[in-house]
Amino acid sequence: MIRLAVRVGAADAEIVLAELLELAPSGVEESDLQGGIVEYAIYGAPGELPVLPDLRAAVGDALVELSTSELPDDWSERWREFHRPITISSPAPERVSALRVRAPWESPSERPDLREIVIDPGQAFGTGAHATTRLCLELLLSLAGSSAERSGLLDLGCGSGVLAIAAAALGYGPVLALDHDHLSVTATAQNAIANDVWIDVRRFDLRYDPWPIADWQAIPVVLANLLRPLLLDLTQALEHPPAHLIVSGLLTREADEVSRAFAQRLGMSERERRCSGDWAAVWLQAGS
What we know:
- The protein has 288 residues and is of the alpha/beta class.
- Helix content is 30%, strand content 30%.
- The protein contains 8 helices and 14 strands.
């Protein structure tokens, strides 16, 4: 097994990640290194990996270092250690339980106040440990804790299905999960079955496909863990603002721009913002 690593400056990480996902749509591993460097790693057999000229062309001037390494025989165990469980505390335990997201090989928690979500990270984008997913989960729990009402929810860019499955586990429904990548659609559907929740999962490209939703009143909550360019596209694609919109996938320096775009185009106001390291997530609501 080969590990192909691409290191770029944090300022260019968003653009590089978008390009890498075109070459490796099954997902990449992301690590924050010292000195403002972000490393993206892709795993596979030599013939399965993107060729180096394509990677260099995709990364361009943002490239700091490109390297390949052969993994030892125990690489699969080391890979498992990378996907550690995460726990999201509840802001209102009387209304909504805390969440624990874990891989299938991790032991269940003995805490009775936790709702566990089991995600197989082998097919898409991890188990929820990335800051953008954690921040979305935190804001989703804040939303769920602010009201006992549970209605329709859309997860746009579902990846491995962490957010959609969490929403269904919290009582939201119907839940519609969309992603442009076939592997993500398959992974979300399989993970939903493993967690005993029902989710409508479909392939959808925000930039080219017509919306699969006729009645937006049936989908008052939208989660969009996307990169900045797609979130800006979303401001134009939405004809009506949802009651609640949680956006992530943003660098902290991009959050003001995206929040302002939803305010100007759809009249949405910012209710809460959370940050973790260089990443941010914003909870917007319809009206002021």
